[in-house]
Design brief:
Elements lengths: L1 H14 L20 E17 L2 E21 L2 E12 L2 E4 L1 E15 L2 E14 L17 E12 L3 E12 L6 E11 L4 E11 L20 E14 L2 E14 L2 E13 L1
Antiparallel strand pairs: 1-2, 1-13, 2-3, 3-4, 3-5, 5-6, 6-7, 7-8, 8-9, 9-10, 10-11, 11-12, 12-13
Length: 269
C-alpha cells in the first residue's frame, strides 16, 4: 500500500486542482525521492447563472481549460508541484495563473490502524499572460498571491484516507485576501482510486458584481464559493493512467453556479 500512496494520490489530486475545479492546491501524500508525475488534462465548467454578490442572476458562461502539471519528490518528506493552465471563457482564451508549491512533512505518527501526519505547504501563483480581466469573458483577476497551507492527513492500512487543509491567501491589491479550506475522503486499491471532496473559499471583503458601489475593475471583486466534487483514477499500464473528475457549485459570491467535469492522462517517471 505504501507504493500505491506514492504512485497514485498526488497525480490524482493534480488533475483536478486547476483554478476551475478547485479542491485545494496540495494534498497529504508524498511522491518519494526522485519520483516524477506529469499530467495533461482538460475540462469544462458550464454555468447558466452567476452570483452577483450573493444574488443569482441569469448569466451563461462556458469555461474550458487545459492544464499541465508536474509533481516531483525532492526528498522523502519534500515535494514540489508546478501547474500551468490555459483557460477559455465563451471562446476568449489565454494562459491564466501558473503556480509553484513546496510541501514538507513536519510530523508523522502511528495512530490506530494507520498513520496521522501534519504537513506545511507554501506556494506562489502569478499570471502567465496579459489575459482579459473585465466583462463576461474575464478569465481571472491578474493578481499574484502567496499561499500558506497546513495539512492534516490520516491514512489507514486498508487504503481509506482523509485530508483536511487550510489556506491563507495573500493577494496583490486591489484583489482582497482570502481563506480556504478543503476536506477530502477517499480510498485506493491496486486496481483504482476514488475520492469525494468539499472546497470552501471566503474572501476578506471586496466589492460585488453589479453592486453598489460598482467596482472600477473586476480585480476588486471578492470571490467566495462552496463546491463539492469527486475523482476517479485507474492505471492503464505501469507508468500510464487516466483520471476523471466532476464538480458542482453549491453557493457563492461573485462566482458562477453550475457544474464541471474533466479528464486527463497521467505519465509516471
Amino acid at each position: 500500500m505504501k507504493t500505491l500512496t506514492k504512485n497514485y494520490f498526488l497525480i490524482v489530486f493534480l488533475i483536478t486542482s486547476s483554478s476551475i475545479m478547485a479542491q485545494g492546491r496540495v494534498d497529504g501524500f508524498y511522491k518519494g525521492k526522485g519520483n516524477l508525475d506529469l499530467v495533461l488534462g482538460g475540462g469544462m465548467e458550464i454555468n447558466d447563472q452567476f452570483y452577483a454578490g450573493e444574488r443569482l442572476v441569469k448569466l451563461a458562461r462556458t469555461i474550458s481549460n487545459v492544464n499541465v502539471f508536474a509533481a516531483y519528490g525532492i526528498g522523502e518528506k519534500l515535494d514540489i508541484n508546478l501547474s500551468a493552465p490555459f483557460v477559455s471563457i465563451n471562446g476568449n482564451g489565454d494562459l491564466q495563473d501558473g503556480a509553484i508549491y513546496l510541501k514538507y512533512k513536519l510530523l508523522e505518527q502511528e495512530l490506530g490502524n494507520g498513520k496521522l501526519s501534519f504537513s506545511m505547504a507554501v506556494g506562489y501563483a502569478a499570471p502567465l499572460s496579459d489575459y482579459q480581466t473585465e466583462g463576461i469573458n474575464a478569465i481571472g483577476q491578474q493578481n499574484s498571491q502567496i499561499d500558506a497551507r497546513p495539512i492534516i492527513h490520516y491514512f489507514k492500512n486498508n487504503g481509506w484516507f482523509g485530508t483536511l487543509q487550510f489556506g491563507l491567501q495573500s493577494k496583490s491589491k486591489p484583489t482582497p485576501n482570502s481563506i480556504a479550506s478543503t476536506l477530502k475522503i477517499g480510498k485506493a486499491s491496486a486496481k483504482d482510486y476514488f475520492d469525494v471532496w468539499y472546497d470552501f473559499q471566503q474572501s476578506g471583503g471586496g466589492l460585488d458584481y453589479l453592486g453598489n458601489p460598482r467596482p472600477s475593475t473586476f480585480k476588486e471583486l471578492g470571490s467566495d464559493f462552496h463546491k463539492v466534487g469527486a475523482t476517479y483514477y485507474r492505471p492503464i499500464k505501469e507508468k500510464l493512467g487516466f483520471v476523471v473528475g466532476a464538480s458542482s457549485t453549491l453557493a457563492g459570491r461573485n462566482t458562477g453556479k453550475g457544474y464541471g467535469f474533466n479528464l486527463g492522462i497521467v505519465l509516471k517517471q
